[in-house]
Amino acid sequence: MNRRSKATARPESTVDPILEKPLLHLHAANDVDSFWNAVQDVIDAAVPTCFIGLTLQHSPISPRIAKASEKLPSSFFPIVPIEKYFNAHPHRNIVLISDFFSDERHFRRSSFYRGCMVPINGRCAIGLFFWNVRRLLAAIIVVRNMQQGGLSTGEMKLVRHLHAQFQTALGRLRLLEREQAECVAFEQFMRRVPLPTVLLRWNLRLVYRNQAAAEFCALWQRGPLSARFVKTKAPLPPEVLDRCRLLKKRWKQLTPLGFAPVNLGDETVHHPTRRDLRATISVKQISSAAVARPHFLIEFENLCPGTAMGYQTRGASMSHLIRLTSREQNLALLVCDGRSNQEIADESGLSLETVKKHLHSIFCKLEVPSRSRLITLMR
Questions:
Q1: Which residues contact 6 (CB under 8 A, 6 or more apart)?
Q2: What pLDDT sits at residue 46?
Q3: Is the CB of residue 219 less than 8 Å from the CB of residue 330?
């Protein structure tokens, strides 16, 4: 008995040993490519096939993703017959492809039969469909040739079991993509927020640092003159990291077994020589977290008024500043300090022409006609 027949001979077992490793890979998939590779491995281990196809992103505003084990035209997925079928039989999960066509003659005259079945000597096919409420998330098409024949009762039972596995893996992939999209959107937003913010894991590895924080770290360690011209990213200040280590030690003393989260007060760290620069460290932990350790949220401030990197923004001006790039934010603050174009150029290390171009961009984005209107808007 070959490997595939073994997989179909015992569909009543919880997980066939032959399917165990492919299923582990399936549930570890974290993107479309790894999911597609795992789908092929699972189906190959379960039933004999001559072709496997996958379609994703069935959305009117996004291009459909199509993958196939054989090089075939992108039209292998029979859109029109499928739409007609599901209008009459909504949300079916497992369907024979021949069910999409009224009879054998229409099936053999279809573009799906000519473009997909004929080139691989296909005899029959089955479609696995995956839904989120009423939206089709994905479809897997499995084609068998003349020698392999139609699916037996045992193979159909196994395919139904695999459908649930694919559905679970797709749900996980969907959540991962949603979290990634939210993270990207958040990072894009935070890059334009003028408040320098850093997030560290419990092991003090960097999770996130926005552009304003990167500039502030350079200011903290190199001073205003070097920070303006040196483009390399500065590491986090050692004084801040040392205070985080002290907070870790205190947290462990208060929760020796880590049974319950402890709310530690915020810690303030000042620059060793420039008292106008400070960092506020907060230990953050979700109260419902069962395994994860806390994170460190670090917010930097420059208490010296009237500096380009002061980040002294009020609530009313925050919504306007986030429309600007980091460079434009600094220049807008200098304008609000009453600096002339030449003074801004000297302070920022830019040419006068470049300053004028940036100010024109600022006026356009904030829809103000003049410097006085900009100052009024920012107050």
A1: 16, 18
A2: 93
A3: no
If phi > 0 it is left, if psi is from -120 to 50 it is alpha, else beta; for residue 313 that is beta
Q: What pLDDT score does 3 carry?
A: 47
Instruction: Report the amino acid identity of residue 349.
Output: G
CATH 3.40.50 fits 191-312, yes or no: no
CATH architecture of 314-379: Orthogonal Bundle (1.10)
Q: Is there a shared CATH topology between the 3-174 domain and the 191-312 domain?
A: yes
The reported pTM is: 0.54
Structure tokens at 315: 């609530």
Q: What is the distance between the alpha carbons of residues 372 and 90, in angstroms, rounded to a whole number? A: 62
Measured between alpha carbons, how far is 104 from 88 in angstroms, rounded to an integer?
Answer: 19
Any idea which architecture 3-174 has in CATH? 2-Layer Sandwich (3.30)
% of the chain with per-residue pLDDT over 70 = 76
Question: Any bridge partners for residue 281, and if so which?
Answer: 267, 298
Distance CA 336, CA 355 (A): 15
Domain ranges within the chain, ordered by starting residue? 3-174, 191-312, 314-379
Count other C-beta atoms under 10 Å from residue 278's C-beta. 17
